Amino acid sequence: MDLVIRFLVGGLVVSFFSMIGGALKPKSFAGLFAAAPSVALATISLTVLKKGTEYAAIEAQSMIIGAIAFLIYACLVSRALFRWNLPVLPTTSIGLVAWIGLALALRLSI
Amino acid sequence: MLVKFELASVRETKWNEYATRFIFGGVVTLLAGLIADQFGPGIGGLFLAFPAIFPASASLIQKHKREKKERAGFDGTKRGRLAAGIDAAGATIGCLGLAAFAATAWKMLPRYPLWLVLIFATLAWAGLAFTVWFARKRARARS
Q: Of the candidates A24, A55, A64, A30, which has an alpha carbon nearest to the alpha carbon of residue B100?
């Protein structure tokens, strides 16, 4: 039941921010919503209820590193799409593997 | 006006595109919890900033832009790719806000009620991201 609630809450919050971003112009401003804290908003509430505030605070601390990795990911994807004739979905999807590697490397080195 | 909210864009989006975002969002939230259970909050927390929805959103932006150009009789391939690139550039600024959200939540969670933490953290995200975006826009207009 916990997993179903997690899935539904996550889906709803992400869809909400995505819908707002989709309706905004210019696209560079809409892009701010591509990095909205949607997963965090859904997860932190459920984590606090289940495991307490100390546990959620450690997750939030790690999230700073995840956000830095996201910043580098978005910067690289943006440059790549401007400079080269690359397909969007494969480029952004392959970049996710780089995000995982980068986030883990930063987390383990700090 | 500098920023516009267009309801027509919401109506233009098909139900299956909303479903894709819903499923991606649900799966990532689910995975973030499972990873934290398995590897601890130090690793699980990283995935609160995982850009999982980003590829789906960027490809939808590209598709909408390309279709719009094609309806006008042009090849919209390049414009579609550039629109996705602009979205990614905006996301880099959003990431600064995302880090501010995380830092606010980290510092406030042990001391304040959850509802207050979430409000302040969301304001930190929006405040920093919007301020940097407008400052950048103004600086570009001057130069």
A: A64
Helix (H) or strand (E) holding A33: none
Instruction: List CB contacts (< 8 A) between A9 and chain B.
Output: 29
The reply to whether A40 and A8 lie within a common domain is yes
Q: What tens digit of pLDDT does each residue of A3-24 get?
A: 899 899 989 998 888 888 878 8
- The dihedral sign for the CA sequence A27, A29, A32, A36: negative
Would you state the structure tokens that stand for residue B115, as one six-digit string? 């509802």
Q: Is residue A57 part of a domain?
A: no
Four-point Cα dihedral B57, B62, B67, B68, nearest 10:
100
Q: Give chain B positions within 8 Å (CB) of A31.
A: 86-94
Q: What is the pTM of this model?
A: 0.89
As a whole number of angstroms, the distance between CA B5 and CA B113 comes to: 33
Name residues 71-90 of chain A within 8 A of B (Cβ).
Answer: 71, 73-75, 77-78, 81-82, 85-86, 88-89
Are both A36 and A74 inside the same structural domain?
no
Looking at CA atoms only, how far is residue A62 from chain B in angstroms? 5
**The two structure tokens encoding residue B8:** 């027509």
Domain boundary among A32, A51, A70: A51
| Same structural domain, A76 and A39 | no
What secondary structure letter does DSSP report for B143? -
Whether residues A44 and A68 share a domain: the answer is no
